[in-house]
Design a protein that fits this description.
With 394 residues, this protein is an alpha+beta fold. It folds into 3 domains: 164 residues, Nucleotidyltransferase, domain 5 (2-Layer Sandwich); 71 residues, no CATH class; 80 residues, 2-Layer Sandwich (Gyrase A, domain 2), CATH 3.30.1360.100. Helix content is 34%, strand content 30%. The strands form 4 sheets. The chain has a 5-stranded mixed β-sheet, covered by helices on one side. It has a 5-stranded mixed β-sheet with strand order 11-10-9-12-13, covered by helices on one side. A 4-stranded antiparallel β-sheet has the order 14-15-17-16. The longest helix is centred in the last third of the chain and has 47 residues. It is globular, with a radius of gyration of 24 Å. It starts with a strand and ends with a strand. It holds the Pfam family GspL_C. It comes from Aeromonas molluscorum 848. It is a single-pass membrane protein. One of its GO terms (cellular component) is plasma membrane.
């Protein structure tokens, strides 16, 4: 069939759902619209009819990473991917659904999303009587730029595709911070009017209806989160009971084959525990307000990357002075730290349970530093804000 129904879901069931029916043969939109929330997905059952259904999901809920295997990629080495990803993210990899996007030699590009979020998306579709054979992140439904990134603004956020298998979602503030960390200005092909942000060469791409732009690329691409445990059942699934015993035996043999490798990985993990405990102790001294510590190495590396080429002595001086302040306001958490060597400024992007904690931190920090407060806003029960700290003039 030349017609397809493309749906863009949100992270929560209360978020609006955009949809479009596209005719590939006629190269035209048959119908389009926006549902108030995913509770109304059943209204698209008639629209779907016998058409294939493609579901787009927010790229902000998906993790994109490139990992390097000890050897070439194959079925056996693929079992090590969760261990390698664990070194790069501050999340429990056992709760994630991993999908390999591409591999070349020892390099593997993959994406990951929380298993419970996958179940929620599929549950909404199933409750509405819709069956999608393809589920993909919206950022990978942007056209890929031959040079640089491609971008599209949807509401208050920007979708950016950075390469064949990489993308991100950011509001204008975070996008500005991201661009400021680039060594050289990035060329960005924007399909919506570009923002007034430095750090990038903004080029205006051909304007187009956002959902049409995403639908076209989604229908061309092969990216699909519906793999592994979430692969849609086909007519062959009815033979599962007949072949189940054979599969169980095959899996058992595979586990035996992987036994030695799994044991070696387990032993290496045990040897690392003592060192990680020491690193965790040092980490809590430097960042006493950050109570949720999942992967110390990954979190420290994230802080250091955001600090860029800052003078280590200057950064440590600021962090040492700030340690008691973070300890007195435990609810406040630093998300982004960046040190400007030339200005001698530490720039913080923080979150807190409420405005009281934000004001308390600013008051305490003001005893040691000159504090400038930027934009503060409340989002999903948390308060986000920007602060600039500079040593007081003697």
């Amino acid at each position: 069939m030349n017609e397809s129904l493309v749906i863009r879901l949100g992270i929560t069931q209360e978020e609006p759902v955009e949809w479009l029916v596209w005719s590939k043969g006629e190269e035209e939109i048959i119908a389009s619209g926006t549902l108030v929330s995913a509770h109304e997905l059943h209204e698209l059952r008639e629209r779907a009819g016998g058409r294939p259904v493609v579901a787009l999901v927010p790229g902000s809920a998906v993790i994109f990473r490139r990992v390097r295997l000890p050897g070439k990629y194959n079925r056996q080495s693929a079992a090590a991917l969760p261990y390698l990803l664990e070194e790069q993210i501050a999340s429990d990899v056992e709760s994630l659904h991993l999908v390999v996007l591409a591999h070349q030699g020892q390099e593997v590009d993959l994406m990951a999303v929380d298993n419970q979020q996958m179940l929620r998306w599929l549950g909404w579709l199933e409750a509405a009587g819709l069956k999608s054979l393809q589920l993909l992140p919206d950022v990978l439904a942007l056209p890929q730029a031959s040079d640089g990134w491609s971008a599209l603004q949807l509401g208050k956020v920007w979708l950016l595709r950075q390469g064949p298998h990489q993308g991100l979602v950011a509001d204008e503030v975070l996008l500005g911070l991201l661009l400021s960390t680039q060594l050289e200005p990035v060329t960005i092909h924007s399909h919506t009017p570009p923002p007034a942000l430095a750090g990038a060469n903004w080029l205006e791409a051909d304007p187009e209806l956002p959902m049409l732009l995403l639908a076209r690329e989604a229908l061309r691409g092969q990216v699909n989160l519906l793999q592994g445990a979430f692969r849609p059942q086909t007519e062959y699934s009815r033979h599962w009971l007949q072949w189940r015993k054979v599969v169980v035996v095959a899996v058992a043999l595979l586990l035996v084959t992987l036994g030695q490798r799994g044991l070696a990985l387990y032993q290496l993990d045990s040897q690392d525990k003592a060192l990680k405990a020491e690193i965790r102790e040092v980490y809590t001294r430097i960042f006493p307000g950050e109570t949720r510590i999942v992967n110390v190495r990954s979190q420290v590396e994230q802080h250091l990357r955001l600090l860029g080429g800052a003078s280590q002595s200057g950064v440590l001086l600021f962090l040492t002075e700030l340690a008691p302040t973070f300890a007195e306001v435990p609810g406040l958490k630093p998300e982004v730290l960046r040190f400007d060597v030339e200005r001698g400024e530490l720039r913080l992007q923080v979150t807190a349970p409420g405005f009281t904690e934000m004001e308390r931190f600013r008051e305490l920090a003001g005893k040691r530093f000159e504090v400038q407060q930027g934009e503060v806003r409340s989002t999903k029960g948390r308060v986000e804000g920007a602060l600039v700290l500079k040593g007081k003039s003697s």
